[in-house]
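haha ok so turns out i had the wrong file open the whole time. this is the CORRECT one, sorry everyone. sequence first:
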Amino acid sequence: MAATAADAIERRLPLATQRLVLRRPEPADAEAIAPLAADAEVTRYTARMPHPYDTDAARSWIAEASRPLTLTGELDLVLLKREDMALIGGISLIVAGPDAGEIGYWLGSAYWGQGFASEAVQAVAAFAAEELNLERLTATVHTENVRSAKVLIGCGFRLVGEAVHEFPARGLSAPVALYHLEHAGCDPARRSAPVELPVVLVSAAALVDADGRVLLARRPPGKSMAGLWEFPGGKVHAGETPESALVRELAEELGIDTSESCLAPIAFASHRYVDFHLLMPLFVCRRWRGIVTAREGQELTWVRPARLSQYPMPPADQPLIAMLRDLL
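then structure:
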């Protein structure tokens, strides 16, 4: 895979679903991964996770998993609950050819049976289809791992046979069931018969302070995509222009006053979510009156443009980072 293509793919991360954030692992994650993976029930069916599993093993995995996609051909992500950003598991996608990939995942036992694995598999399968142009995904499941088999079948995978695979972390061989997904979106009907979605118009602002920092707001618990960082703004109501809606939203959310003449449009996002399509113009604003204050329970932070990519954002906001960074 060309470096430029891989870089573009990395900029699409993290992924966000209704309840999860899927992002690249970070060194600090080792303390959260180790106790989850130390559970023998978690690792007994995994090929590459040793048992016993400790913090050193987690650090070693993170160091390997953080390597560029261009070098490894593998995308490793950790799963975070958006409600409280607690780490609950991991998922990987191995690019096995020009149009095929292999998927694998694990989940802390406290989070089994709640649909998190299915949600993660669907997100990665869609990512594989839309960003990597993979038409086929495979997965192998230990024949005793009924839970994982149900997850795959629920995502549209079909059983195609059985084999015997090595489990290097266990030092043994074991029978596995082979599953294929021929259309890598977990919902083949969605790819063959697109559904018309309502278009939601949202106006957003990149507030830039005197030091050249950009304001980000973190969505509070209870809202969709809770825990993710975004540019302040909101929906454009009937009869409003994007500019007038943004002036209103900034007053309601942050307690500041500005005028439409202080808003300079620089880009827009167009992104399809599960149940609507978002169209979001982004404006730069450098002048306002009042002190920026969180008035709706959100967390606020001022970020240097070069560090914006370090903050997990909704998928629609992510493509705007590079444009904003180049401008500032």
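The chain is about 25% helix and 30% strand.
again sry for the mixup
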